[in-house]
Specification:
Length: about 90
C-alpha cells in the first residue's frame, strides 16, 4: 500500500502555486470587471482559478488559469476536494 502511494505521488507531483505564473496570467488577461480603484491586483468579485486543479495534476501555468466569479469558484472547490481526496 505504501508503494502505491509513493508511485501515485511520483506520477502526479503536487506543485506549489507560482506567483510568477499568476502575475503572467494577469498581464495576459486583465480582470473582466476592471481592476479595483487604486489597485492593479485586486479584482472584486473574481478570483484566478486553475481550470484543471493542481490536486488533479493540472499544471501551474497561465494557460491553465481563468478568471472565475467568487461564487462559481466556491462551487468548483467542492468538486476539486473530491479529486484531491483520491490522491
Amino acid at each position: 500500500m505504501i508503494l502505491a502511494l509513493l508511485l501515485a505521488a511520483a506520477l502526479c507531483p503536487h506543485p506549489h502555486r507560482s506567483t510568477a505564473a499568476r502575475n503572467a496570467f494577469r498581464v495576459q488577461r486583465p480582470c473582466p470587471g476592471g481592476p479595483d480603484k487604486g489597485s492593479h491586483l485586486r479584482c472584486r468579485g473574481y478570483v484566478i482559478d486553475h481550470i484543471v486543479p493542481l490536486a488533479c495534476c493540472g499544471p501551474d501555468v497561465p494557460a491553465n488559469m481563468q478568471w472565475q466569479t467568487t461564487a462559481a469558484a466556491k462551487a468548483k472547490d467542492r468538486v476539486e476536494l473530491k479529486c484531491g481526496a483520491r490522491r
